[in-house]
Amino acid sequence: KRKAKRMEKKEKEKAVKAAEKVKKEEEKERERYLNLSDREKRALAAERRLLAASSASEKPVVLLRCFNCGADITGKVPFTYLDNSFCSPSCVKKHRQLNSGK
């Protein structure tokens, strides 16, 4: 009985660690994306569209990210401004405020 409980607890811990690892990797990818220049973001989006069209993969590919915060907006209707896609009106507003000083 105790052994079964220990094994069950280990399995739960494994599942939690796996979920944390996936979340950490996604956050790392998001941060890397946010550090790219505007031109690099556009080029990356074009590359991913081409890859998605040419091959089918097991892991879902992020085809579209918010230009401001880097959130995955693949499959959602984006808010657009100056040919950039955003996940929410607040991201559009932040982008406009940052670029209004230029």
Low-pLDDT ranges: none
Return the string of H and E elements.
HHEEH
User: What is the first-to-last residue Cα distance?
Assistant: 68 Å
Strand order within the widest sheet?
A: 1-2
SS elements, strand count:
2
Strand content: 5-15%
Count the DSSP helices.
Answer: 3
Shape: elongated
- How would a textbook summarize the main sheet? 2 strands, antiparallel
The radius of gyration computed from the alpha-carbon positions, rounded to a whole number of angstroms, is 19 Å
What would you say about this model in short?
By secondary structure, the chain is mostly helical. It contains three helices and two strands. The relative contact order is 0.08.
Keywords:
about 100 residues, two-stranded antiparallel ribbon, mainly alpha, elongated
Indicate the topology.
Layout: H1 2-34, H2 38-54, E1 79-81, E2 84-86, H3 89-99
Antiparallel strand pairs: 1-2
